[in-house]
Amino acid sequence: MIKSFKSDLKANRKNPQTLMVLFTYRFGNWVHYQVKNKIVKKTLWGLYKMMDLAFVRILSNGELHAQAKIGDYLHLPHGLNGIVISHKAVIGSHATIFHQVTIGGRNSLGEPVIGDRAFIGVGAKILGPILIGNDANIGAMSVVVKDVPDNASAIGIPARNLLRDEPKKENTR
Fold first, then answer.
1. Is the pLDDT of residue 91 over 70?
2. What's the pLDDT band for 165 if we cut at 50, 70, 90?
3. Which residues pair with 131 in a beta bridge?
4. Cβ 12 vs Cβ 76: under 8 Å
5. DSSP letter string over 107-153?
6. In angstroms, rounded to a whole number, what is the distance separating the alpha carbons of residues 114 and 124?
7. What whole-number distance in Å separates Cα of residue 142 and Cα of residue 156?
8. Element (H or E) spanning 27, and its range?
9. d(Cα 139, Cα 121) in Å, to the nearest integer?
10. Average pLDDT over residues 25-35
11. Is it true that the peptide bond before 158 is cis, omega within 30 degrees of 0?
12. What SS3 class is residue 91?
């Protein structure tokens, strides 16, 4: 939990509200998946639910469920602001998610799995049991209901895939 939160701190250093949201998520995720003692887990889960209500739902106007599996360095440039991430979603490391994005199920079929270094533009909707590849870009306001391969961009409603010739270059900061 601490290692993941430190990576989130590096990715979102200038936004304390986002850091509180990500701390709440990482804490809830740790309680859900790591705490084994039932009494301790129930107590900590109650604390998580209060933090979730205050920091995530009311102050940040979004949903980021503790059961979701999210890699390190999650970057939220505009905070959680209207972002909804399903409890069964899987998101890789170094993902960037802009405001008003929905990542969730469709007709109880399943939730998306998003690869590493994904870039998800403003207002995008990623719905259903689909796979978004590594280094994929999802365009603003796109509705993605089918798989997006590695190194591709998806744009439009419904989204269509545009393949890139070369993979993204590694960040050398």
1. yes
2. low
3. 113
4. yes
5. TTS---EE-TT-EE-TT-EEESS-EE-TT-EE-TT-EE-S-B-TTEE
6. 13
7. 5
8. helix 16-34
9. 5
10. 96
11. yes
12. strand
Tokens coding 114: 């998003």
Mean pLDDT value across the chain: 93
Helix (H) or strand (E) holding 154: strand 152-155
Q: Which residue has the tokens 């409603």?
A: 157
Q: What whole-number distance in Å separates Cα of residue 36 and Cα of residue 40?
A: 8
Structure tokens at 112: 């998306």
What is the per-residue pLDDT for 8? Answer: 86
CA-to-CA distance for 117 and 126, rounded, in angstroms? 16
Mean pLDDT of 127-147: 96
| Pairing, β 152-155 against β 160-163 | antiparallel
Cβ proximity of 8 and 22 under 8 Å: yes
pLDDT on residue 173: 47
In the structure encoding, which two tokens stand for residue 44, read together? 């900590």
The CATH superfamily assigned to 2-163 is Hexapeptide repeat proteins (2.160.10.10)
Per-residue DSSP letter, 64: E
pLDDT beyond 50 at 163: yes
